[in-house]
Design brief:
Elements: H1 3-16, H2 19-26, H3 30-44, E1 49-50, E2 57-58, H4 60-89, E3 91-96, H5 102-114, E4 118-123, H6 126-135, E5 140-144, E6 152-154, E7 156-160, E8 205-207, H7 214-226, E9 234-236, H8 240-248, E10 253-257, H9 258-263, E11 267-270, E12 278-284, E13 286-287, E14 290-291, H10 296-306, H11 325-332
Parallel strand pairs: 3-4, 3-5, 8-9, 8-10
Antiparallel strand pairs: 1-2, 5-12, 6-12, 7-10, 7-11, 13-14
Helix pairs in contact: 1-2, 1-3, 1-4, 2-3, 5-10, 10-11
Length: 333
Amino acid sequence: MDLLAHLEAYVATVDESSFSRAADRLGIAQPLLSRRIKTLEAHFGGLLFDRSRRQVTTTELGVLLLPYAQDVLDRAQRLGQVARSASQAQVRVVGVPTGCAPVALARVIRAGTERGITLAMRELPPAERASGLADGSLTYALVRVPPEHAGLRVPLGLASATSPDAPEPASTAVSGRRRRAVHLEDLRPRRSGATTGELPAALPILTLTEDEVPYAQDRLIRAAARAGLPEGLLRPAGPAATALAETLAGGAVLLCAEPFARQHGASWAPLADTALHRGYDVQAARGRRGAVDVPDWLAALLAAAAGASTGAPETTRPGSAAEDASARLAARG
């Protein structure tokens, strides 16, 4: 027996003093309402209504049980309201890469608020974003995937110092004076024409935590070896602040996305090898009924926050294979 439905029939009949009007109020057929009243009377072991008169009247048992029945219905209604409010106010945690521009993340939060959704941004390393989706501590996240399989691509390049008195990088391609794509072999030390015959030391290439995922590290190490770069030239940057300080002082170049470099006043030039770029998919945690859909507006705004390209990469022409839906999705953001 659906106790709440039967109690609703009982209370409505008391209020209306009529089976037909009570049925109309509840939007059900009168025979169904009558059956519910009879089932409830059998359950409580006594008549709730005196049907011997022209107008339905409530029996002593019916009058006695009425306030308790109304209390049960009121509590059930409040329970439903609390549950709905909690569901609407639930904070959805979004895992994003470290270093996203605060202004871009603010746009994501505001867009959620406009849609009645409370979003909380959490900067996490790649592995923690993936595990957060798996254990349910994150609702959505930007997950690193190889760029050739990614829905979103973020061009990576090398950031360098812009100060006029900073030491020159091994290649002017990284100095920001020309925005041509950088090949790793460009970073090999060149003879400066000095009579010593010694090659100048190459600047270290620092990598951020965001790019220290196994497949990305493996690709970068192999590419550096093919380019003939000295062993040990690549090294983890550690904290981003100290890596930026070393880069801006002219002591290193930093592998990063363009928005991150520009945000901190560094020059930037893209890597020619697109296999070394970042790839992302916007994914959602799996709920009880399976995977949760990622809203298009959220995917577009997260793409922009991560620095996904809004057009064809500089190393490709419009209409080429590298110009795909990922760029168009970011552009819509």
